[in-house]
C-alpha cells in the first residue's frame, strides 16, 4: 500500500515531459520519454565512515532512493556536492526534477549537502518563474532543508529538536484534499495513511507549525499533515509550496519498499498494524 502511494506521489510530483532519447539498436528506434530525476548526494555520516574506514569515500546516495525513483518510472542522475553554481545550473537544465534525500549530515558544512541544496532550491525557483515546470521533492532531511532554505539560512536554523523513530499514521489537516499531493489519493489510500502505522520516521529534528509562522512561511506553504514524536511533540509530516511544485515529507516512503533490515521493523505489509 505504501509503495502504491509513493509511486503515485512521485509520478504526480515529477510529471513532466522527459528528455527525448532515441535508443538505436538492432531493433527499431524507440523514444525514451521517461523523466530524468537528479538525486542529491551528501557527506558520509560518522556512522557510515566507521563502516568503511579504509575507503576514501567523501559522499554517497542511498540505493533505496534510486530504486524508489526508478520504480516510479523515471531515470536517475546523481548530483554531486562541493561544486560551483555553474555545475548546478548546467545540470538542472538537463533534468526534469530533483529529489533531496534524507540522511544524517549537517547544514553548516561548507560546500556540502546544504550548500548544494541551496543552489538547487534557488535555480529551481528561477526555472519555474520562467515557465519551466521543475519539481523538487524533499524527504526527511531534505524536507527540513526546504524549510530552512525558505526561511533564509542563518546561524540559528529554523527547525526544532525532536525524537521520532517509530512507524505511525498521518494526522491530515482539514483541507489536505485541496493539496496537489493528496487531491488524487483514493479514499483507500487516505484511510490507510490516517489509521495505520505506515509512515517510517527516523529523525532528531523536525519542523513545527511555530517554525512556519516565525518566518511567515504559511503564506507560501501549505501544511497537509502532522505526526507526534515519542514525547508527544506535534510536528509537520508533509507540506507543499502553494506556487512552485516543491513538496516535502518528514517520513521515509522509500524504506517501506526498498529497505528490509529486520531490526528496523519497517512496514511492508498490505495490512499494517494500527
UniProtKB/TrEMBL annotation:
Active site per the UniProt annotation: 140 (nucleophile), 252
Region forming the signal peptide: 1-18
E.C. designation(s): 3.4.19.9
Taxonomy, superkingdom: Eukaryota
Keywords: Hydrolase, Secreted, Signal
InterPro entries according to UniProt: Class_I_gatase-like, Pept_C26_g-glut_hydrolase, Peptidase_C26
Pfam families reported for this sequence: Peptidase_C26 (PF07722)
Enzyme class, UniProt record, top EC level: hydrolase
Reactions accelerated catalytically: (6S)-5,6,7,8-tetrahydrofolyl-(gamma-L-Glu)(n) + (n-1) H2O = (6S)-5,6,7,8-tetrahydrofolate + (n-1) L-glutamate
Compartments reported by the entry: Secreted, Extracellular space
Family recorded in the similarity comment: Belongs to the peptidase C26 family.
PANTHER family: FOLATE GAMMA-GLUTAMYL HYDROLASE, PROTEASE FAMILY C26 GAMMA-GLUTAMYL HYDROLASE
Protein's name in the database: folate gamma-glutamyl hydrolase
